Sequence to fold (611 residues):
Amino acid sequence: MSDTDPGGDIEELLDFLRDERGFDFTGYKRPSLGRRIAKRMHETRTNDAAGYRAYLERHPDEFVQLFNTILINVTSFFRDLPTWDYVQSEIVPRIIEARAPADAIRIWSTGCSTGEEPYTLAMIFAEALGEDELRRRVKIYATDVDDEALAVGRHAAYTAAQVEPVPQEFREKYFEPANGSFVFRVDLRRTVIFGRHDLVQDPPISRIDFLVSRNTLMYFDADTQRRILASFHFGLRDNGFLFLGKSEVLVARSPLFAAVDLKRRIFSKIPSAVRERVAVTVPETDDAIPATVRAIRDAGFEAGPVAQILLGPEGHLAAANLQARLLFGLSQRDIGVLLQDLEFSYRPIELRSKIEQAYEERHAVSLRDVEWHAGSEVRFVDIQIAPLVASTGEIVGASVTFDDVTRSRRLRQALHESKREVETAYEELQSTVEELETTNEELQSTNEELETTNEELQSTNEELETMNEELQSTNEELETINDELQQRTDELNEVNAFLESVLAGLDAGVVVLDKELRVQAWNGTASDLWGLRSDEVVGQHFLNLDIGLPTDKLRKPLRDALAGKTDGVLRLDAVNRRGRPIALDIRLAPLRLAGGGPLGAILMMEADTKR
Fold:
């Protein structure tokens, strides 16, 4: 174990994160969590989980860094483009065809990170329906547990690198450049609703036509994945589709979904997998029920094996059996109290929204493995909320049952861990036998290889000594070359200084041009004559210089000079830098090396000021 490995204390650290900041990582895979926490421990130079917890308490800003490290935000537009092409051509038309023209289309993108995936969905549905129909009918719910990533998604501003995977025609149609970024169009952005949602703790969004959860489930353990898949099954319509990532394979073995395209991880909901939901029917009045029957019914309710609570239509407590009174500490004084004033309305889970859902949908709502922190003890309960329907069809209240499944859940978990340990042990044993069989052969061959290696090392040592001598010789040669180069540089500097002094000492203005008539040299007399310094004209085309010299009359003489001809002295009228007219005598000569052709031209200019 490394110095920064959280080790067995990781559970205490996770409990601290849950209690302190409300992030519950119970269902996350422990090896992955351990690696990411160890990374932050290494960055903060803490040696164990206890030390890192103390660091978090001293530096609250570290919570943000830790959550960003744990909640890996890896996403992009049109991620795995061939799969999106299949969704656009095959799945989207089936979703649209299944809904009436006036019906809303509800889409849920879980683990949406910074929003690239929901905006991809918006673009492909806009292509299929048109922008007006998209705004009118489509709602895309984009959820994640990372508030910072959700904030980025709401602003919908992305860099050029982030929008690179978007096809060019989509980029021009759905994005607007702004301040060096690309912003998704505001009028279409309203179809995407961003919100924080914990797949493990929060109830699913219901009546979904297309549920996209790519590479989100892989961070959870198998039990948590099954619970999330059950939530997905509940949230999807009967003809809805589920779109997962390539690394998520557990759903292929789930009885809740059927593969539409297993390679692309697209599944359809199996409606028959839904447990039958039957509303509890109660008589409208007790007048027709004999007293003995009512007594038996009341005694049966009181002796029920699970905690059961009955609520009236206005949300007040109508009845609670013995198990419920013991579980929640209720008494007769609580009968008639509004649900919102009782602790069990929000602990272990918020009940009021679930009761409204049961009333609205007129069927039972089930919640599995709800975690309940009762003091220092952690329990798990299954909760079922069923509307109570009178014989007239009117809803007269609700029944809420709490079934403590802590023991069975722990047994299932222990059984699962035992099976996993047996499988791991068997694989390790089989691998060990194979390794032992090969190790003996490897040891025999290794001995022979070591003898050969020893001889090769001796030979290599001799070669290295030879190379060392060669490198020393090469180093001496390089030093000699360096001395020669330094000497040549000094000589070149002296020649340049000599040429500059010669040019500066001439009374005539001297201009040296290359074959393209660009200025290579410009002495001080030329600067005094035309008012331009050498650094302003060197590299400029001579005929384009804005000076008082009629350069058009020099084109032919310059071409002749470049051809090696000399025409004597050319006299031109010009205007010097002071604006005075001057008579200018110009001598042109070709610039050449000894024995070679012309490399350019030399102009010597002498001026007489006109009186």
